[in-house]
């Protein structure tokens, strides 16, 4: 007796389409790189710039493997959310974006491709999306040991070179972007600090999002120890809001009193960083209170990608 075909979807049926879409989504997820910026000293800041920093730039230090023809500036977002552009001038300069309209499953490869494109593109050209086939790793394009020397902007006026008057359409686009921007700052916590702590005034509240490089499970246990001890905060006027995962890293988030300037949170964040380091070094089994804290913290996690 032949096998029943009762459960086999017709090629043009809705069920067949849904199964095909599910397979495509599974294949895409399998291709995604869990921790794309791992191994780079700038990993935590790269994640922050991709996910939530409104406006910032940094001139990149390229690897000795790259025959650099012109400087390259890393940017949060470029006009039109393009992947890259080359700005004309006495010294043409490449700009690459981290928040782009089109991206692959490997943002590090996108960035490497965009950087290399800027070295041969003509001034005035822009790149809508990167092509990642056959591209070297980002660690081969950038100096992997170099941190980002960031400039944080409170507007997007840097989209236009100094001394250039934009046309009406460009000026209107910049004005619209400036009106929507949220004030932000990177907390400078000293040479011994770990990760990248970013403050933003979101309107009703301010927040610190602290991108951490540690193993997620180890960091969660350390946060649980601090929570059980009543130390999961950045000082008076702050509270732990939860955490999210992105690009293989865990990002604790704190709600803050927005009446205080970003720099006023540096002492509290520095003290918290020291307590967190001590908790990370603690290899004792969790107490019952710490286990309850861990379970509660995990229930408040969100995964962005």
Q: Give the count of helical stretches.
A: 8
Ends apart, CA distance between termini = 48 Å
Kindly state the percentage of residues in helix.
25-40%
The coarse silhouette is: globular
Strand order of the largest sheet: 5-3-4-2-1-6
Instruction: Name the poorly predicted regions.
Output: 24-30
What assembly state would you assign to the polypeptide chains in this entry?
single chain
Structural class: alpha+beta
**Proportion of β residues?**
15-25%
Radius of gyration: 23 Å
Number of DSSP strand runs:
12
Determine the mean pLDDT: 90
Instruction: Give, in order, the helices and strands.
Output: HHEEEEHEHEHEEEHEEHHE
Describe the main β-sheet briefly. 6 strands, mixed
Q: What features would you describe in this structure?
A:
- It is a single chain.
- With 305 residues, the protein is an alpha+beta fold.
- 32% of the residues lie in helices and 18% in strands.
- The strands form two sheets. A six-stranded mixed β-sheet has the order 5-3-4-2-1-6, covered by helices on one side.
- A hairpin with a 5-residue loop joins strand 3 and strand 4 (93-97).
- Helix 6 crosses helix 7.
- The N and C termini lie far apart (48 Å).
Secondary structure topology:
Blueprint: H1 14-31, H2 43-51, E1 56-59, E2 72-75, E3 84-87, E4 93-97, H3 107-118, E5 126-127, H4 138-141, E6 151-152, H5 168-180, E7 184-186, E8 196-201, E9 206-211, H6 216-228, E10 238-246, E11 249-256, H7 266-281, H8 288-299, E12 301-303
What's the gist of this structure?
By secondary structure, this protein is of the alpha+beta class. It has helices at 14-31, 43-51, 107-118, 138-141, 168-180, 216-228, 266-281, 288-299; strands at residues 56-59, 72-75, 84-87, 93-97, 126-127, 151-152, 184-186, 196-201, 206-211, 238-246, 249-256, 301-303. The model is unreliable at 24-30 (pLDDT under 50).
